[in-house]
Amino acid sequence: MTLLDAPVYNAKKARLIRNITIASVVAVVVLAIATYMLWNWPAEHRVNNFLATVEAGDMNKAFGIWNHDPDWQQHPDKYKDYGFGQFSKDWGPSGDYGVIKSHNIVVAKTVGNGVVMGVDINGGKTPMFLRVDHATKTIGFSPVELYTGP
């Protein structure tokens, strides 16, 4: 075969290559959009589980979710800084929000090594900001407040 001998044009093969290329580009774009949209989903799911447990009144389980330690009762001295007594005061009926009946995550954003979420509790006007740490999966009060709009 010499340099000027071109292979016969195969329309079927060219169409197949074009379709595979287009499908690959579309798949990459859809995957990128899905990743962007669902990036904070694990942290949001964790906070939803926590608040649903608080709404159900199971404070022992809620404290375990808060600390990412379902067996926290085996070693309660580990949580002296923010113990179960203070947790029950903050999240129980005598807390700032009273009996928690509903919640809605208004905004979530990755900040540093965690996800900060604005949570609307009991239909309030001002959200409470919670933070889920990526490494430890613990929930805590966030020092960072996000803009939630006018």
Give a written overview of the molecule.
This protein is of the alpha+beta class and about 150 residues long. The chain has a domain at about 40-140. Helix content is about 40%, strand content about 15%. The protein contains 4 helices and 4 strands; from the N terminus they run H-H-H-H-E-E-E-E. It has helices spanning about 10-40, 40-55, 60-65, 85-90; strands spanning about 105-110, 115-120, 130-135, 140. Strands 1-2-3-4 form a 4-stranded antiparallel beta sheet. A hairpin with a 5-residue loop joins strand 3 (about 130-135) and strand 4. Helix 2 packs antiparallel against helix 3 (about 60-65). The chain is elongated. The model has no long low-confidence stretch (mean pLDDT about 95).
